[in-house]
């Protein structure tokens, strides 16, 4: 059994995984060009729409597949194996739809409209919250973007960074500060002449996510587009789409190194380098990293699926740990794969150098390592010794 298939539980999951693997293989053929150009892979998203990927987490009542978090992890791994940028970008969409499905933080009428548009037209959603001045919202920054009452709605002005999927979205959520209320709120905004994508995304890795700046110049949105409801706390399980993507990249690096080691034989050796003890040791370390990461990742997803909504917030530390172990393990796996392949791994003719750059982006996706470790430390320190 392939390592990729170890967490498949039934024929339905296998069939869906096989379909997504076929897509991922197609994306892999395009990945190098998009990486070189820093271009957005519109054709990948057309393929995802045609394959029904965009509606996977939509409730069945609205025409979607309503897959579980566990199944989302399975599929995101496979997409990451083919193209990390596409996997991470679409993961924000399907992950947030899962989050909206479970938390019910949107008014039902708005959520139903979004779901119908996803199923019918392939619409997508993402939240733009980060800003240069305030940093990541996960670290508590207050947005400099403002919302002011006007014309039976709101005028929103500001600039958002790391706006993944910005080239393709016709609607998105932004966080904004309301001066007259001295509080922050989220607003659903539609693309218009008052919204502009400024192509700033020119990065070391994940170059095809379209995470440009979004500038709002008094963008108008209606009263009912203020998303003031907090909904239920679902523990943030949907964020496991992030480590799943990076584990997929690590699996691709592992498989490339395996094929290289099985076939590459320098002229001073009688056998391919796979026979060398040092190489076999490195592969053992790769397997240990991957199996540990995937065990934690799938266990966390399965527990979240089975847990009641009331208890899901208690899983935050477990979910954070899964991300921490998966991303840091994935980085080490890619590094080991490059050491096995040697100097050739630096060549842009091979995918390893792209995997190396892409996988490091996981360190800057939430939850951050420092936050995870602080949470774990706080839980440990809050324990009371048994008497």
Characterization of this structure:
By secondary structure, this protein is of the alpha+beta class. The protein folds into 3 domains: 119 residues, Butyryl-Coa Dehydrogenase, subunit A, domain 1; 101 residues, Butyryl-CoA Dehydrogenase, subunit A, domain 2 (Beta Barrel), CATH 2.40.110; 146 residues, Butyryl-CoA Dehydrogenase, subunit A, domain 3, CATH 1.20.140.10. The chain is 48% helix and 13% strand. It contains 10 helices and 8 strands. The termini are far apart.
Sketch the major β-sheet.
4 strands, mixed
Residue stretches low in confidence (pLDDT < 50, at least 5 long) are: none
Sheet with most strands: strand arrangement: 1-4-5-8
Question: How are helices and strands ordered from N to C?
Answer: HHHHHEEEEEEEEHHHHH
* Total of DSSP H or I helical runs spanning 4+ residues: 10
CATH-assigned homologous superfamily of the largest domain: Butyryl-CoA Dehydrogenase, subunit A, domain 3
Count the E strands.
8
Amino- and carboxy-terminal Cα gap: 48 Å
Please state the structural category: alpha+beta
Q: Examine the coordinates and then state which fold CATH places here, giving the name of the CATH topology of the largest domain.
A: Butyryl-CoA Dehydrogenase, subunit A, domain 3
Number of domains: 3
Strand content: 5-15%
Choose one word for the global shape.
globular
Arithmetic mean of pLDDT:
96
Keywords: FAD, Flavoprotein, Oxidoreductase
Domain Acyl-CoA dehydrogenase/oxidase C-terminal: 244-361
Domain Acyl-CoA oxidase/dehydrogenase middle: 129-217
Domain Acyl-CoA dehydrogenase/oxidase N-terminal: 11-97
């Amino acid at each position: 059994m392939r390592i990729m298939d170890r967490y498949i539980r039934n024929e339905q999951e296998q069939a869906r995984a096989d379909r997504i693997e076929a897509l991922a293989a197609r994306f892999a053929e395009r990945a190098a060009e998009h990486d070189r150009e820093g271009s957005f892979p519109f054709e990948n998203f057309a393929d995802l729409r045609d394959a029904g990927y965009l509606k996977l987490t939509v409730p069945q009542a609205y025409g979607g597949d309503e897959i579980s978090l566990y199944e989302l992890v399975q599929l995101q791994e496979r997409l990451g194996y083919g193209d990390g940028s596409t996997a991470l970008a679409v993961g924000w969409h399907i992950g947030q739809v899962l989050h909206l499905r479970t938390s019910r933080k949107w008014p039902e009428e708005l959520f139903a409209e979004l779901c119908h548009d996803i199923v019918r037209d392939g619409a997508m959603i993402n939240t733009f919250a980060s800003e240069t001045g305030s940093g990541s919202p996960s670290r508590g920054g207050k947005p400099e973007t403002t919302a002011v009452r006007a014309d039976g709605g709101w005028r929103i002005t500001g600039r958002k960074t790391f706006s993944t999927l910005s080239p393709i979205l016709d609607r998105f959520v932004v966080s904004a500060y309301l001066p007259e209320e001295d509080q922050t709120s989220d607003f659903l905004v539609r693309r218009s002449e008052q919204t502009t994508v400024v192509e700033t995304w020119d990065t070391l890795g994940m170059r095809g996510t379209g995470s440009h700046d979004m500038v709002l110049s008094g963008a108008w949105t209606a009263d009912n587009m203020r998303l003031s409801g907090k909904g239920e706390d679902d523990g943030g399980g949907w964020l496991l789409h992030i480590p799943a993507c990076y584990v997929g990249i690590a699996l691709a690096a592992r498989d490339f190194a395996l094929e290289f080691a099985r076939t590459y034989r320098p002229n001073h050796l009688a056998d391919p380098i796979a026979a060398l003890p040092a190489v076999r040791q490195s592969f053992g370390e790769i397997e240990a990293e991957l199996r540990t990461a995937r065990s934690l990742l799938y266990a966390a997803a399965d527990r979240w699926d089975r847990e009641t909504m009331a208890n899901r917030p208690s899983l935050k530390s477990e979910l954070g740990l899964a991300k921490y172990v998966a991303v840091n393990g994935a980085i080490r796996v890619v590094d080991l794969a490059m050491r096995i392949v040697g100097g050739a791994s630096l060549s842009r003719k091979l995918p390893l150098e792209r995997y190396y750059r892409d996988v490091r982006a996981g360190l800057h996706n939430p939850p951050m390592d420092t936050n995870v470790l602080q949470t774990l430390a706080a839980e440990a320190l809050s324990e009371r010794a048994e008497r």
